[in-house]
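G., the chain you wanted modeled:
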Amino acid sequence: MRRPREVQLAAVQTLCTDDPKENLDKTLDFVAAAARDGAQIVCLQELFRGPYFPVAEEHEAFELAEPVPGPTTEALSEAARRLGIVIVGSVFERRAPGLYHNTAVVLDADGSLAGLYRKMHIPDDPGYYEKFYFTPGDLGFRAFRTRFAAVGVCVCWDQWFPEAARLTALAGAEIIVYPTAIGHAHEQPESEWHAEREAWRLSMRAHAVANGLYVVAVNRVGTEGDKTFWGSSFIADPLGTLLAEGDEREEQIVSARCDLARIDSVRTQWPFFRDRRIDAYADLQRRYVGLEPEPRAR
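Predicted structure as tokens:
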């Protein structure tokens, strides 16, 4: 009989104003409230210090970037140390002149920086012009040992790629956190964006099942320009079951108690890791395989 390893997870979904300090202060208030309710790992949405600026390509937005460590990580570090919790945050990182990343930071319960992850998959779609701002990450898919659990992070667009989730799991993650900023354009039919939201949830729940771990998806709420973010932050267990789910519109804390001992139990019953054919997956490193073998050079 496996002994429980319980941890309280929380996701904080908020509205964002144009004032970075106001957004930071409000987020820290939510973090403190989550900790008072027993949360040990608190996860924040993507780029929580302001509106989602990649809706357009504007050089002025680069002024929002900051180094890591920097003001945001220092504020989160102090909160993590004072509250004795782990915080997963999101930063527009200025790494060097002309070099910027969409970066997630993991602050351990003593305030130390357990690690950082730089977003690997960078979208370039109407309303999501991230390639203008962000260099693809160069740290790979990682997991970080913290006081309460091994935490891996992927960011928003990463959530659609099963390879990202699998490699994060193989790095040792017990929990994958997905800081997110996703919603719908106002002219989009309701039935269409509801279907897209369900696909968004289904994708990450599938990652939880395929890798036998917990998933935390944390998304912002509110209307920014012609886009409305659909919230619906959630926590899923290793069988993909929704343990907690947020509202579409309201600022709130989404929280659930999770038993990390279930990971070994589920992986023993559904031994996907045992049965992986690692000798047969080389074609995953090709851009496209096709129905017929590609011609070989003579």
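The chain has a mean pLDDT of 96.

Shout if anything looks off.
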